[in-house]
């Protein structure tokens, strides 16, 4: 039997070994931080939540929602705090008023103008949506995609919420909705017409314009010598279009990896912000023939992709899609959504100034600050990191599905400690 001191030493040693093990596993996910790309991920942090609130209001009769109803929806938005406090922070976006002894919320006139502008852009972009959807289906081996899976990416691809009603019925020569499984969850969109002119990737199109062989772009500093060497070795292999049938390729081969990287590059090129959740990409593993350890593959190519765990959500960005923290090419929908973000900031700025002045007034009444000192003090704008705790403002599914098991093998940790204590 081990005495208490010996057990403490063994447990301490075990914890150090486990920490080393976890850090070693964490290194599989780590990538040197890029401040510009991290800033790009930060920019639409609160925009996502306000966009969801906007959609909730638009789905309600007369585009008006009670704050009590909005409070109940906060759980689905994965938000904490009071809904009333949240919407009051954005007076340029949301108008709060009382009716029948109850607080209600609606969109401001400025917001409604942007909503109308967004709808106009969507109508003008219908051809783009059709081509984008067709290209996605052309990269799938059987040219069919589950509707539920596609819905996870529809906003990232710019597809309207009602694309099944708005787009599919108008283009029955291109698509059809099928349900071979007979269940609601098995409904799929199938491509029934192959368009050869669409089966050209962005890399191939660029090479045609430049009159050279298709090749990837490495967006790393010249000081990353080893990464550049590995990139040149990888890029020396012949380019394989993501629109070709991968049936003849051997899984795990260099050729198969080359096509997979090309497919991921093409998919991210089709998204509005040239980025996607790695977990959601993993949902298309079977359709796109992606490897089980997708994260490892992405980290092998730091010159092409940037992997971030901002807000505890693993995201991959296409490096060449950005110049600093700004998109190289902005989709018309992104331009409208940027205006929404600017309107948010305008309202938040006004809210913060009012909040600051109220605090000064309270302090003056309590005699905490003198009038003379108040006149000389500069007015500092408050941060948008206000009283409300965001919690996890992104898709709650990101945490529910055990995404962190990739990093923290809890069962292994518990088993190691139990064995040592029991011994």
TrEMBL record:
One Gene Ontology term of the molecular function aspect: RNA binding
Domain of life: Eukaryota
Every PORR domain range: 32-348
Pfam families associated with the record: PORR
Record's protein name: PORR domain-containing protein
């Amino acid at each position: 039997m081990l005495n208490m001191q010996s057990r403490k030493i063994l447990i301490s040693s075990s914890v150090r070994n486990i920490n080393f093990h976890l850090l070693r596993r964490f290194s599989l996910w780590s990538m040197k931080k890029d401040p510009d790309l991290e800033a790009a991920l930060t920019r639409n942090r609160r925009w996502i939540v306000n966009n969801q609130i906007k959609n909730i209001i638009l789905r309600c009769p007369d585009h008006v929602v009670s704050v009590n109803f909005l409070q109940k929806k906060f759980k689905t938005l994965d938000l904490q705090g009071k809904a009333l406090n949240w919407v009051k922070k954005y007076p340029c976006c949301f108008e709060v008023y009382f009716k029948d002894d109850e607080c209600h919320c609606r969109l401001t006139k400025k917001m409604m103008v942007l909503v109308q502008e967004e709808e106009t852009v969507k109508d003008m972009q219908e051809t783009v949506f059709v081509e984008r959807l067709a290209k996605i289906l052309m990269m799938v081996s059987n040219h069919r995609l589950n509707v539920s899976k596609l819905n996870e990416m529809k906003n990232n691809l710019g597809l309207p919420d009602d694309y099944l009603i708005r787009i599919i019925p108008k283009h029955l020569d291109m698509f059809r909705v099928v349900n071979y499984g007979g269940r609601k969850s098995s409904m799929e969109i199938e491509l029934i017409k192959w368009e050869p002119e669409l089966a050209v990737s962005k890399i191939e199109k660029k090479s045609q314009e430049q009159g050279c062989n298709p090749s990837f772009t490495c967006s790393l500093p010249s000081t990353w010598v080893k990464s550049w060497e590995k990139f040149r070795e990888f890029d020396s292999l012949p380019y394989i279009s993501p629109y070709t049938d991968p049936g003849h390729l051997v899984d795990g081969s260099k050729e198969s990896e080359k096509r997979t990287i090309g497919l991921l590059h093409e998919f991210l090129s089709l998204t509005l912000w040239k980025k996607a959740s790695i977990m959601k990409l993993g949902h298309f593993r079977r359709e796109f023939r992606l490897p089980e350890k997708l994260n490892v593959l992405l980290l092998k190519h730091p010159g092409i992709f940037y992997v971030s765990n901002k807000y505890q959500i693993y995201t991959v960005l296409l490096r060449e899609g950005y110049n600093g923290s700004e998109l190289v090419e902005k989709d018309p929908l992104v331009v409208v959504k940027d205006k929404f973000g600017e309107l948010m900031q305008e309202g938040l700025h006004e809210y913060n100034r009012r909040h600051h002045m109220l605090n000064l007034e309270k302090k003056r009444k309590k005699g905490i600050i003198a009038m003379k000192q108040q006149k000389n003090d500069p007015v500092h704008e408050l941060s948008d990191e206000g009283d409300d705790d965001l919690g996890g403002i992104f898709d709650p599914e990101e945490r529910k599905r055990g995404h962190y098991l990739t990093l923290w093998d809890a069962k292994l940790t518990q088993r190691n400690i139990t064995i040592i204590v029991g011994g």
